[in-house]
Design a protein that fits this description.
Helix content is 65%, strand content 0%. It has 153 residues and is an all-alpha fold. The protein starts with a helix and ends in a 6-residue tail after the last helix. The mean pLDDT is 94.
Length: 153
């Protein structure tokens, strides 16, 4: 199963967009799936249903952080290089999906939603672009990894 297919299936199984994307890459990041699910659980619905940055984007960024992120506070060039990488991933996503913002992607006018998640019904899945969006994020990260091999640590 590809990362795109895994992300889509994760979402259709009931995980939020951030969990769907981030956990699709556990085979590459080496992160335990249960830990990855818990770590990314806060970012669904545009960060806790605040409808801000899309969860699929957050999941993509978290995976990129594990793969390429920095931990040396003395080398500011590493931080700058990582932020440039994240901006590039964001630009790739925006060019395909036209926004990074959850509410814009969903066509919502409200600035946030009630904390209770929507029931995952057939109507829910038909009304949401999220399955396609999590695939987009996974495809973008896969392409980035192909173009930029993950450094050995």
């Amino acid at each position: 199963m590809t990362h795109q297919e895994k992300a889509r299936q994760n979402f259709l199984n009931g995980y939020n967009c951030a969990q769907a994307v981030f956990c699709a890459f556990c085979d590459v990041t080496g992160m335990d799936e249960r830990e990855a699910l818990r770590l990314s659980s806060s970012f669904g619905g545009g960060m806790g249903r605040l409808r801000e940055v899309c969860g699929a984007v957050s999941g993509m960024f978290m995976a990129a952080g594990l793969l390429y992120g920095y931990d040396d506070l003395e080398d500011k060039s590493l931080k700058a290089a990582h932020y440039a990488r994240i901006q590039e991933l964001a630009a790739r996503f925006s060019s395909q999906e036209k926004s990074l913002i959850c509410r814009e992607l969903l066509g919502l006018t409200e600035t946030h939603s009630a904390p209770e998640p929507s029931d995952r019904t057939q109507e829910y899945y038909q009304s949401r672009p999220c399955p396609r969006i999590v695939e987009t994020a996974a495809r973008i990260l896969d392409k980035y990894i192909e173009e930029n091999p993950v450094p050995k640590r």
